[in-house]
Amino acid sequence: MSRADRKRWRAAHTLSDLGDLMARWLERDIKSWPGYQPGYGPEEETNPAMIRVLAQLNRAGYLTVDSQPGITEPDDGVMWSQRASVTGFVDEDELVARLEDMAAEHDLRIVLGGRAAGRVDEDVVLTTRDGQPHSVFPGYLGHGELRCMWPGVSFDAFGALMYAWQVTIYAPEWGASGQRLWDALEGVVGAANPRVVETEKNVPQLRR
Question: What is the rounded distance in angstroms from the CA atom of residue 183 to the CA atom of residue 158?
Fold first, then answer.
């Protein structure tokens, strides 16, 4: 990670600060974030529409750390299947409640863990390779896992992560039909949070 990026992340003291920086990383204004390979942006599968929604989520108070589209396709001679999903941290009870309501309304699944919710051992399989589990979002990240994910952040920022809700939302079905998750997420944060609408005016548009 560059010295400039390291300094930016070290200067964050709240979950909101981290979310603003994560949005800038998604938009490629910042080259690195602590829990990811330095100098790399979002994965190629994270398309511009997803990036826009993820940036909105981060500015609205949902600090996202992992996400994926829903796909079912062959690769290397085997079939890969993914559920559309996103996971991260929220420290506002009101936003957690809105996300729960959204999940119920759109037949999505939500898993709440962390200090705010108590320990949750509901790991969720979100990618399979040749029918076998390949990637899993854990229902709970403890102190050690959070330290590995967020090296170098300030004491205050790490404390905010420790005491936040850990929120995973995913479509129950496999494949592209789960993409409705992203429309639902955009609806719950865009209209309900004036700060997102105002901030978006000053966000540079990605080249398509």
Answer: 31
The pLDDT tens digits of the residues spanning 58-68 come to 999 999 999 99
- Domain membership of residue 86 as a residue range: 3-200
Element (H, E) at 73: strand 71-75
pTM beyond cutoff 0.90: no
**Does 164 fall in a domain?**
yes
34 in a structural domain: yes
In a domain, 207, yes or no: no
Q: What is the pLDDT of residue 111?
A: 93
Alpha helices in 67-154 (DSSP H): 93-105, 143-149
- Taking each continuous run of H as one helix and of E as one strand, the counts in the chain are 8, 8
Paired with 142 in beta bridges are none
